[in-house]
Structures are given as structure tokens and as C-alpha cells.
Amino acid sequence: MQLIVISNPEAIPNEAGIINQLFEAGLTRLHVRKPGYGGKQVAALLTQIDEPYRHYIALHQHHALAQDFGIERLHYTEQERINTDAGKLAAQNKQGYILSTSIHNMAALPSLKWFDNAFLSPVFNSISKPGYMTNLAESFYLDNQGKNLNVIALGGIDISNINKIKAMNFDGVAVLGTIWNEPQIALSNFKNLKQELQILTENHDNR
Questions:
Q1: pLDDT tens for each residue of 82-104
Q2: Longest alpha-carbon distance in the chain
Q3: What pTM was computed for the model?
Q4: Parallel, antiparallel, or unpaired for β 117-120 and 98-103?
């Protein structure tokens, strides 16, 4: 299972430093989501991230920066995906970009022809957005039949419930609040999640 970190939408003190520490600790996918940032602000953050790690980054906004920073992954919000011409998505696919998008129900999956990953949220009640409640049943199970892309669980995930994500058969987890609500312990929280996910995967493989 993939473990993905989404950046805090707001600026965090020493943010690039923490991000570099997360990569050093084994993070292989960071989604840079800064909806209130202009292109220059996003570029400034990317510049501070060590170059060897930049190919692990997915951009949510300012996709035009991808080429300058060697970024291969682009993310679309649900509304941006709906508003984007299929020809543009096909062209980005052809250029070698790996596309991901956000969804809020499973019915959207068959329409995601050009995407490799879909983030389904909220799987649990959100940590970073108080009052953002899940409508997913506890008994939910992701059926692999007919699924042609990775489905990533997002929303309310921490060390206490990550085992449920594995049992639900998601292809990965994406976390935001668990990492950034307490930036001073972001690194240790990431390491704990990574270790727990590794244990869950090993136990599953040894069945």
C-alpha cells in the first residue's frame, strides 16, 4: 500500500525542511496542495525541496511548473477534472504525466479514463476539516473487479484506524491532518504510520 502525504494548504514554519526530512525517512509521494498560493509561492516552496526528491511530488495547482521542476505527477480536483477537456488530459498522458484526481463516491470511477489514481474522501471523519463527515459504511470493501486505477483512501486516517483501510482493500492512504496538525512531531507521526502500514502489509502477505 502506498503512503501519501498531502501538504498543509497553509504555510508551515520550516515546511520545506520538514518535507525534506519526510522524504529522507522514506516518503515516496507528496501532493503539494496550496489552493491559496500563486505560482511564485509554489515555485519558492519547490525550490527549497531537495532536487532528488522532486520526482516524488504531485502538483495540485500551477501544473505549468511541473516541467521546470522535473515533476511527473499532476492532480485534479473533482471540479477541475469535470471542467477540463478530455483532449487536454489525453495530451498530458501522452507527454508522460501521471494523473490523479479527487472523487467523493465510487460511481465516478468508470469515467476516469486518463487517471492512474483516485483519492476517495472522506473515508473517516476528517481530522483537518472539523465537521467534514464520512458517509462511507464501516463495512465498505473495495472490489477489485472492474477497477482500472488505484483508489487511495483520504480523510480522518491516523495510526488508530489505518488497519481498517487495509481491511477495506484500498490501494493506499493519503494523510494531511495527522502530519500537519502538529508539525513539531510530523516526522515521528509519519514514521509511525509507515511502520504500521509495513506491519499490516507483511501480516497480510503471510496469511
A1: 999 999 999 999 999 999 999 99
A2: 50
A3: 0.93
A4: parallel
